[in-house]
Predict the structure.
Amino acid sequence: MSSGARQPNDLPVGFDADFAHVCVADGTTADLELPFFSDTVRALARTAPHARLEPIGELGAVGGPGQPLLLVFHVGRSGSTLLARAIEALSPVVVLREPEVLTAALRAMRADLLPAPVLPDLVSWFAGFAADRGKALGIKWPSTMSEFAPELLDLFPGASALGIVRDPVAVLRSAAVAPPTTGVPIAELVPTLPQCERLLRDAGHEFDLGSFIVGVWAVAVDAFIRLAGDGRLRIVRYESMIQQWPAVALDVAGWVGDRPTDAGDVARMLHEDQKALDRARSVTSTVPDPGSWAHAEADRLDDLIRPRVQLLAEMT
């Protein structure tokens, strides 16, 4: 596959309905009338004059060898995009930010809809695009994929890993201000996250917004603590990152790569991120008082929160 001039985050890529092909809208001839897995991919593909199909079985040979240098896992609303942008600015890494095609591949692989090598083959393919730009590949996974961090690190044993955490009350408040867009009802999404589902069921909690947010946070923290204890992941606290910006970003970038550059742009990123946050807060909240709702939900879900907060405090 030719990379052309596109950057990895811009690539309109998706599976066909049977997970038999990967479709790439890149100006060559093929049928665009496919039921793409992702609505985003479908919309992007409509803007391209043509697309081509790569059979799944040939993907590895086309992509060639390649491994990610960095995997970024995080809880929701924890500044992961901000830190990913900083890593890109300060190190020889380009970070794919929550690529839907890889998330789809992971889910399909776990459901036995795709053979196990497909996800590594896709990542190898993206690593080729990064290499064309003189960069190593990083992947920032959606927060809901953090429970699979151990599994993903087993697939990519050479990758370094970050786990970004934040105080769960702040995560709840942020979600009340700007609710997560899950694409499907939460009651349908939770069963696709086996550890989160088991945690909530065992604790007797309903599959509602607050439980979903805290459940995803809790299983992510469990994975991060276990991996950090094994020396396989570095935990970064959102609160420290913001209070010590850009020092934490510089430190992480130096840990990831060996070419740190000027920090001026990174300092400006925090200002841009704050402006975006202020805009989000100006939107009408889903609850009358986000702060009160967040504290009430944290009290209700204290059995999931308190022990993990204590463990994080001991580790970080």
